[in-house]
Design brief:
This protein has 10 helices and 8 strands. With 292 residues, it is α/β, with parallel strands linked by helices. It is globular, with a radius of gyration of 20 Å.
């Protein structure tokens, strides 16, 4: 009997160890790419496939492989496009300065500088979460360089609105209720197990000094209402109806010209990138607009 219990416990321990090893590999293993100098910052990027260029920009406290490669999106696109996935400043295999002046608008300019480095005159760009705000800033400042843009799990924050960015992992309140903002940082309320794990992994993927510098520079990514209303670049916004940033997606919908808006039922900030509707919609949008 004791031997049987020992074998069962040993098997369970080995299974747990295997799962943990797979998780660590999934999170931390990187596809090795190349780097280039972007105004003094070494930026890591990978290139897959051939065809019209698509630049993929990941979110906060993650890296390009985890956001785009592990989810199968790079593999979904690289038959039709040259897929360029970059690690943001402070993330992954890119340099991690702690000076806030090295972030903000510099992160949007990194997209254009990478295109220049690769000799690409015009590309499509897709950004997820923070990457969506960065992509929107790049398109607003350099519309002539982009065929189209996809803003995923992101939206628009009115620079005239003094409120904080809502917590993306807390579902927005029902429309009839007053919007009560929970901040990305500073909330002492009890968090879900997922949120704790997400934050724990994120802490391993971006140093605390770089995270603080990124967040302190958010205001530099502001895009004016006039820029949205005068937009000429075809754009699509994918956002889950349970995403805490949904109010910002709806604000984008109200003010941005040349915008398609896709609300994903029962999807939140994390699960949008795993949604078959999102993946299919992104590919179809890029096929329609990313080859012109």
């Amino acid at each position: 009997m004791k031997k049987k219990i020992f074998l069962v416990c040993g098997g369970a321990a080995l299974s747990l160890l295997l799962l943990l090893s797979l998780f660590v590999f999934w999170v931390f293993h990187r596809a090795q790419g190349k780097t280039f100098d972007s105004n003094g910052c070494s930026v890591h990027y990978t290139v897959d496939g051939e065809g019209p260029a698509v630049v993929l920009v990941h979110g906060l406290a993650i890296h390009s492989d985890l956001n785009w490669r592990r989810t199968g999106i790079i593999g979904m696109l690289d038959d039709d496009f040259q897929v360029i996935a970059m690690d943001l400043r402070g993330h992954g295999l890119t340099d991690k300065p702690t000076d806030p002046g090295q972030y903000g608008e510099e992160m949007a300019e990194d997209i254009v500088r990478l295109m220049d480095h690769l000799g690409i005159d015009k590309a499509s760009v897709a950004g997820y979460s923070l990457g969506g705000f960065i992509a929107l800033k790049a398109v607003a400042e350099h519309p002539e360089r982009f065929r189209c843009t996809a803003l995923c799990a992101a939206g628009w924050k009115d620079p005239e609105d003094p409120s904080e960015i809502p917590n993306p992992y807390k579902p927005p309140p029902a429309p009839h209720k007053e919007l009560s903002m929970l901040f990305i940082a500073g909330s002492n309320k009890e968090r879900s197990l997922f949120h704790r794990v997400r934050n724990g992994v994120g802490d391993k993927l971006i140093p605390q000094g770089a995270r603080k510098a990124v967040k302190s520079s958010y205001t530099e990514l502001a895009v004016t209402r006039e820029q949205l209303e005068n937009n000429t670049v075809p754009c699509i916004c994918f956002i889950g109806d349970k995403d805490g940033l949904r109010p910002l997606g709806e604000a984008l919908r109200r003010h941005m010209a040349e915008l398609e808006y896709v609300s994903l039922k029962d999807k939140d900030h994390f699960t949008t990138c795993l949604s078959s509707e999102f993946r299919k919609g992104l590919r179809e949008f890029l096929k329609r607009h990313g080859r012109e």
